[in-house]
Design a protein that fits this description.
Pfam families: Fucose_iso_C. Keywords: Carbohydrate metabolism, Isomerase. GO terms for molecular function: isomerase activity. The chain is an alpha/beta fold. The chain folds into 2 domains: 167 residues, 3-Layer(aba) Sandwich (Rossmann fold); 293 residues, 3-Layer(aba) Sandwich (L-fucose Isomerase, Chain A, domain 2). 39% of the residues lie in helices and 23% in strands. The protein has a 6-stranded antiparallel β-barrel. The mean pLDDT is 97.
């Protein structure tokens, strides 16, 4: 089960509008949060007038409450049942200084209730609140419709998207990525800046591949922990023609990598593969990477640290595993389709008929017998969000592209992990990727979350984002 999300709530009020609207909104907020299993942090109706925020004193009380729950709160919902007090909302967020996503909701008026006793004027109030947050430098998110009730389907869609934005932003703060081994010499494409990542709150924990292989080689087939991991591997996927000695090698490597992840409390890994593992250890690490990604501990090959970061961000947005893939081949003469491919490390969520196999391309140089552990499987039709996060070292920035398309059931006769993607204006996307120096690796996720990623990474993380779907 996913951990319960905690959201702060500010209910704005302005004294010459009906107070009863604030009391009604508070009840509706609590009902909504109960329905969605969200933990609310908001003023009690005894703390301020009806639990709303209007005066500077109210703002301080709400801010202190938020500060007490700083580590929990993933985002803030601003509710405007009437015009609201723009300064009260802005001062609360400024004093609390949570630096989390903020969603502004405002109620619509009814045409038959525009008299002094029942009017809201929230349409106007939302503009004023937004203006003040802009002045204070506080980032915020808007609903699709300018005014909307909490129980409207469109608001529920907006709110669920906002919750995903909160998960992405919260999840990327203090992220720890394990970099196992050195970048392969032939892969300049996966260079990145640790310093730019660190400036954005992302820590890279490095370890030499020899340490992992050394720890794996200290184990033997009769060790209880090796048997446990062997059982984990054989229950994860069909072993096909993979020999027993290769499975044992994979199990020992799985133990060593699992110990590294646990000891260093990393959230994701990027592992050297091509071709040191095959030459110096005698198997592929793909199955272990697939199992980690399936269990929401994403793992990328070739020490592609920003590829792993991309996998993690997409996973946060959707709640489902991601996969690192190559933009690999054209699909016949179809300008909007291409082949996505990798040796075989995709999460099982993408591979319903997965089998442990070998890596034929890699095997031509290191011997096929040294490449067991790669997975074989075809991804069927499913929704697609694709994208990539990179450090642009000359500019000193984080940059991103995202977009949406479809994975199809089009005929594809090849090996490894493979899929066919259909993407509107694929040729224009490839122009953008090439002109802006992005990697040949991209990440796919079975979702439609490009808008969530654009909002989280662009608006709140402050990264340069291109959404091809827009």
């Amino acid at each position: 089960m996913s951990k319960q999300l905690t959201i702060g709530v500010i209910i704005g009020n302005r004294n010459f509008f009906p107070d009863s609207l604030v009391a009604d909104a508070r009840v509706e907020v609590l009902d909504l949060f109960k329905q969605l299993n969200i933990k609310p942090i908001l003023l009690n109706d005894a703390d301020t007038k009806l639990g709303g925020v209007e005066t500077f004193s109210d703002a301080r009380k709400c801010a202190e409450l938020f500060k007490a729950h700083r580590e929990e709160i993933a985002g803030v919902l601003v509710v405007l049942p009437n015009f609201g007090d723009e300064k009260g909302v802005a001062e609360t967020l400024s004093i609390a200084n949570l630096n989390v996503p903020v969603l502004i909701q405002a109620y619509p008026d009814d045409l038959d209730k525009l008299d002094v006793a029942r009017r809201r004027d929230s349409w106007c109030g939302k503009i004023s609140v937004s203006n003040n947050l802009y002045q204070y430098g506080i980032k915020y998110t808007l609903t699709t419709k300018h005014v909307t009730r909490l129980n409207e389907e469109l608001f529920l869609q907006d709110f669920n998207r906002f919750l995903s934005v909160c998960k992405v932003v919260k999840g990327l703060k203090n992220l720890r990525i394990g970099a196992v081994g050195a970048r392969p010499g032939g892969f300049n494409t996966v260079r990145y800046s640790e310093k730019i990542l660190q400036r954005n709150g992302i820590t890279v924990v490095t370890v030499d591949l020899s340490e992992i292989l050394g720890n794996a080689n200290k184990l033997n087939a009769n060790d209880a922990i090796v048997k446990q991991h062997l059982d984990k591997i054989t229950s994860y996927a069909k072993v096909g023609l993979t020999p027993q000695d290769a499975l044992i090698q994979m199990a020992k490597l799985d133990v060593a990598l699992s110990q590294f992840v646990e000891e260093n409390q990393v959230d994701a890994t990027a592992i050297q593969c091509w071709t040191s593992l095959q030459q110096n250890y005698g198997c592929n690490v793909c199955t272990t990477m697939s199992m980690m990604s399936e269990n929401l501990l994403p793992s990328a090959c070739e020490v592609d640290v920003t590829g792993t970061l991309s996998m993690y961000a997409m996973q946060l947005a959707s709640g489902t595993p991601s996969a690192l893939v190559d933009w690999n081949n054209n699909y016949a003469a179809d300008d909007e389709k291409c082949v996505l491919f990798h040796c075989g490390n995709w999460a099982k969520a993408f591979l319903p008929d997965v089998t442990i196999s070998n890596a034929p391309i890699l095997g031509t140089s290191v011997g096929v017998e040294n490449t067991f552990g790669a997975l074989d499987g075809r991804t069927p039709a499913m929704p697609l969000t694709y994208g990539r996060i990179s450090t642009d070292d000359p500019k000193g920035i984080m940059k991103v592209y995202v977009g949406e398309g479809e994975l199809t059931d089009d005929d594809l006769k090849t090996f490894g992990n493979r899929a066919v993607a259909q993407i509107p204006d694929l040729q224009g996307l490839m122009q953008y990727v090439c002109r802006n120096g992005f990697e040949h690796h991209v990440v796919m996720n079975a979702s439609k979350t490009a808008g969530i990623l654009e909002e989280a990474l662009g608006n709140y993380m402050g990264w340069e984002v291109y959404n091809h779907s827009q």
